[in-house]
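Hi C.,

You asked whether I'd gotten around to modeling the 224-residue construct. I have! Everything is below, sequence then structure, no commentary in between.
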Amino acid sequence: MASPLGDRRRARLAAARLYLVCGVPGDPPDPALLPDLLRAAVAGGVEVFQLREKRLPDDELTAIAHATQALCERIGALFVVNDRPGVAVEAGADGVHVGQEDMPVGEVRELVGSEMIVGLSTHSPAEIDAADPALVDYIGVGPVHETPTKEGRPAVGVELVRYAAAHARVPFFAIGGLNAANIAEVRAAGAERAVVLRAIANSQDPEAAARELRGALGDGPAAR
């Protein structure tokens, strides 16, 4: 999978600590609201942004993703598309993220090629163990707490974070209901990286919210 672009993306990913996931703000979605949120979040310390938008068809999402990729390049964040590898390829995204029930990661890797980052959600020790470093560049581990973005998915608590810290073969991000009040517990369990959704996207001051979370995860790049 070695390539100069792929190597740069993976090095940035490995060093990242704070990862934001959100959809296009507004109901109905208003793409004009996304750039200000992203600029603020990245100014506060977000290093990876995932666009997770289930409401839009591929053509509309591709146009938004293309503009978002250009913005993320300018402001210094990696850009990942959730669940739709075809959109990620069309938009020139840095990566794609899939769940256990989405397209198998082997097929995703074939579709996106070697330069793109591929992320995978994991919810159990077996899924963490099965994440193949030849196909997957990072995993999300959770949900640590119950979250409305994953209705019906039981919380795994910090025990799975501890397991990932000891056994994960790729960089991992703790995810699920994380905010400034509870981020310390996943840090204590061995997570150097965290995915945040509502704590930044729904904040009145996304930059300040991101800065507080980034500070809680520690200074400097992740070590492993």
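If it helps when you're writing up: The longest strand covers residues 117-122.

Thanks,
B.
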